[in-house]
Amino acid sequence: RSVTRTLFSMAVPMLAGTLALNVYNLTDTWFISRLGTIPLAAMGFTLPVVLLLGCMARGLGAGVTALVSHAIGRHDHQYASRLVTHSVWLMVACSIVVTATGYMLIEPVFRSLGAEGETLDLVSQYMRTWYLGAIFMTLPMLGNGILISAGDAKAASRFMMLGMAINVVLDPIMIFGKFGMPAMGIRGAALATVIAQAIS
Known about the structure:
The protein has about 200 residues and is mainly α. Helices cover about 85% and strands about 0% of the residues. The protein has 8 helices and no strands. Helix 2 runs parallel beside helix 5 (about 115-130), helix 4 (about 105-110) packs across helix 5 (about 115-130) and helix 6 (about 135-150) packs parallel to helix 8 (about 185-200). The two termini are about 30 Å apart.
């Protein structure tokens, strides 16, 4: 197809996917705000760190997307497969390093950002859950990039939208405790995000 048609067919479906990524944060913030101002403040402290680490994963995913798409464009599918395998192992290794380092440095990092007292306790609850589930969130990001490199932006977008929908459903259940689930507060928001992204 022409370059213009290809660009539009790839870019338009990803608009929905990009919207879905933003809705994750909006949904978490909306439900956490109902717990009070201190949990909401704790959520605000976590956002820069979560976004930074997410950008690292997406940066790695973007590099893999470019390399795999070039290999597929050359019809070198064996090399593309090797790239995918190596990128998965690289993402796993990076996730383990980030998880181990971040988990140990939760309090020093967030104290330096100004969190203290009850707010710091809530931040620690959220980030411990988030770090333990980091690998289940980074691999889907990589997978979406690989789908895009193969020309299937619609599937990547659908997976992102699926994750968003699951997060919207799980957030109130896990934060407030419904259908037999215990109320987990801010930790429930982190767990809902991990589960939603892992499934998608």
